[in-house]
Description:
With 106 residues, this protein is mainly α. The chain has a domain at 28-89. The chain contains three helices and no strands. It has helices at 3-29, 37-55, 61-95. It starts with a helix and ends in an 11-residue tail after the last helix.
Amino acid sequence: MDVATLAGTVSTVLFATANLPMVLKALRSRDLESYSVSSLWLGNVGNVFHTFYVLSLPFGPVWILHGFYLVTMGAMLALYLRYGISSRHGRRRARDPDRTTGVPIP
């Protein structure tokens, strides 16, 4: 293994390890309120376009890293669409005052 491939392998492991806690926490807590839907969409669109570039490269660590990003960014967007929007809608509704009494709903 040459130095460049070793460096790519080490960076792939480090980047994946750095992102796993975020994904696992989102899966466990289902709390995605702090995520930006536009950032998740743009990240996924960027990953799709980046796939064309990665596929033009010889197989190596960048393929694995890109595959990891495709899966995790797609999962984060799916989780956001499933839980992030519904939790925001529920919290917004809970803060709105009761229309009949004007008292905030707990």
